[in-house]
Specification:
The protein is α+β, with helices and mostly antiparallel strands. The protein contains 2 helices and 4 strands; from the N terminus they run E-H-E-E-H-E. The strands form 2 sheets. A two-stranded antiparallel ribbon has the order 1-4. Strands 2-3 form a two-stranded antiparallel sheet. Bound molecules: iron/sulfur cluster (2 copies). The site of one iron/sulfur cluster has 14 residues, from helix 2.
Length: 73
């Protein structure tokens, strides 16, 4: 299954990815990461692996997009 994976401790909760995903796969949760930010979560069901979230995220390494068979997380 296509999937975007958020590295929770690298996310600063800026919402750029949330607002950019055309399929509404991303949201900001209530949990706090090590940096003190509420971080993004991904729900993969509608992800088409377009990569938009990866390209817009300002935090290197915070998002990885897998096309096809993604590892379980
Ligand atoms: S790869 Fe595309 S569809 Fe999947 S979560 Fe990112 S922006 Fe959304
Ligand atoms: S764009 Fe990057 S830093 Fe901003 S909420 Fe999404 S994953 Fe986090």
């Amino acid at each position: 299954m296509n999937r975007s994976v958020i590295e929770a401790d690298l996310c600063k909760g800026c919402r750029v990815c949330v607002n950019s995903c055309p399929n509404h796969c991303l949201s900001i949760g209530s949990a706090i990461n090590r940096l003190g930010y509420q971080y993004a979560h991904s729900t993969p069901e509608k992800c088409n692996a377009c990569g938009i979230c990866f390209y817009v995220c300002p935090e290197p390494g915070a998002i990885t997009v897998y096309k096809g068979d993604a590892p379980d997380v």
